[in-house]
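Researcher: Quick one. four chains, 476 residues in total.
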Amino acid sequence: MPPGTSDVVPSAVASQRVADSLRELILSGQLMAGTRIRQEDIAIQLGASRLPVREALRILESEGLTTLKANSGAWVSRVDLEECRAIYKIRERVEPLALQESIPHLTARDHAELDRIQDEIENVTDVETFLVLDRELHRLTYSACQIDLLLSMVQRFWNTTQHYRRAYSTITRHERQWVINAEHRLLIDAMKRRDIEDAERVLIGHIRRTRHELEQHPELFEHPHRVDDQGYPSTRNL
Amino acid sequence: MPPGTSDVVPSAVASQRVADSLRELILSGQLMAGTRIRQEDIAIQLGASRLPVREALRILESEGLTTLKANSGAWVSRVDLEECRAIYKIRERVEPLALQESIPHLTARDHAELDRIQDEIENVTDVETFLVLDRELHRLTYSACQIDLLLSMVQRFWNTTQHYRRAYSTITRHERQWVINAEHRLLIDAMKRRDIEDAERVLIGHIRRTRHELEQHPELFEHPHRVDDQGYPSTRNL
DNA sequence: TGTTTAATGGATGGATCCAATCACCGATGC
DNA sequence: GCATCGGTGATTGGATCCATCCATTAAACA
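Model:
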């Protein structure tokens, strides 16, 4: 199963359980980017030994959610503007492939579901539910892609930029929502027509526009009002 | 430092040291795809405890080089034809971006070095050195790309398909070498002209052609003449 | 004889303990 | 007063031991 998928039944392996819990804490925003993670704290908090926590931190590091530094500690990964731009540029290349591989296998039922979700998106006011729905919409567009490796890559990108999508949506969603809606509708239409080229073009534009708008809000990447993260490792071991 | 880079000075952290050693063993072909890895064997062989080996296996799993199954064991990742095709399809999308980001920052010195390597490639007869040179050439074309995340992704793809490039080159390199040479020369020329579009097009063709030729040699992915790999886990936890 | 079940062996996962490393803080010397 | 050096505390990394799980094998029953 690709990482990031929240298991309904908790994994029997403690490392996976811990990783799942931590991932949930990070993605939900309860663990802010840049906060330090002490192994023992987590171990106590989740009722496990430190060893599974160590392995969980490794797992999450491979997903890009945590950053480890030898003999120093672990932090919730902080994505600066430069890295965020990079991720979006990669997404502009990778997600169209997922779409291409998915479109031929999507059914009419899927198309209807896409319409339904977009209807919901256009009616929602809450930011948090918008994030969930938006992600669900795009996930569905890729869902019939058979390349697991690709899907988990995409999921990873979405996970690591989750914080900033939330922050950005909070700021400018209301005035720019119509653009998102238009793009989503065009995307869904192209998918229904199974016009892969067109769908890819719309999707690329969708991601690229978001990147450009993100680039105009560098304040989102200023270190937020946190003080308890003692020292942030400068070395990114990616 | 991106994974896969062989450290000159051995890392002080045992897990990293073990991971480096194992990676070298796998990439050099001394540990064949599909062979089981027993934690204790490696621990003894490398003079460490089982714990760093466990963490090393996690690290390598995140690089796609090993496959772990809970309560069962670890294996050197085996890439079937389907997954190999997938990786190449992703490479066709991702590597052009690395190229695009690199071309503007490459110097005349780099261009000369590219020519030199290609000269060597056209004179070499040994398969193993061809593999090294070919990889070095492409690495150099991407070397000025500033997106570390992208470079480590590319490196990962090259690592996981290393076995099959070796096997494929062994078979058909002699009769198809002229195609590779032509593509390399065209690529280098476009790069010198800093014609990003053209360079991307050549590169896409280069990767795509290789994929198509790989697809016509499914026998490379038949389980090789090994017997001591007891059972291969069907679940890919990517 | 084929199938199912139970037992055993081996390998992995987890917990605890110990060592090494780093960061912080104070003292000392310039 | 500032910088450098050394000590101390906290946190992570590693080793060993124990529990758990899986696979294989053998045996017993249909």
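The beta strands of chain B are 36-37, 66-69, 73-76.
Researcher: Thanks, that's what I needed.
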